[in-house]
TrEMBL record:
Organism ancestry: Bacteria, Bacillati, Actinomycetota, Actinomycetes, Mycobacteriales
A Pfam family annotated for this UniProt entry: Glu_cyclase_2
Name by which UniProt lists this protein: Glutaminyl-peptide cyclotransferase
Coiled-coil portions: none
Organism, as annotated: Nocardia vinacea
InterPro entries: QCT, Quino_amine_DH_bsu, WD40/YVTN_repeat-like_dom_sf
Amino acid sequence: MERNRRSLAVVVLVSLLGITGCGGSDDDPPRLHIEVVGTRPHDPRAFTEGLEVDGTVLYEATGMPGASGVRATDLTTGEELTRVELPAPYFGEGVTKAGATLWQLTWKDRVAIARDPGTLTERARASYDGEGWSLCTRAGKLVMSNGTDTLTFRDPVTFAATGTVTLSTRNRTHLNELDCAADGSVYANSYPTDEILHIDPETGRVLAVIDASGLLPATVRAGTDVLNGIAQLPGTDRFLITGKYWPTIFEVRFVPE
């Protein structure tokens, strides 16, 4: 009888370890931290809603009624190349370049604006349900966040929805600014925290959680708003990140703790 009890205990223990091992990577993804490689100035009046790097151009979308718009700057020199404003009461949100179109979201106006990437001139509009928070482009599709834990895939020409994926964990996360990385994964600011989630958009699995706290000193953080804005520098393992009303854009790597 004692031997049977021991055998049963071993079986139960092994089963529990197996369950823990299977769920650990999904429920408790690795945590990374920020390694700052460099900094560059950022307009402290910009309520940043999205960053996008295309070649040598950095696009930035901003929000707030009467202060919303899109600007394009030279990635190397920081020189502003062109800028357009959204008339009030539109509240601008994220931006992404898909082929020959630069798409810009609005928050609660349910309007997406298709722009010429060079001149930022408006060419067309599309409508959508719900709120618009951010956009990025991946594998010929747009990936859109709406402030929930679900990502929506959209046609890059018509803006029609083609599918969704919901996070398999962290189910009440408010996904904000997005970046579609070169490896096919998606990075997302988790509003209103200082965390960035690394996501597999095929499954909704959170691959890693990046702690971006402490970038701005407390004396500088006063008067700013949340972390928001992430864009991978093409051909590198580095990203540009910033926040709403932040005076600095940080060039960073995501490294193990």
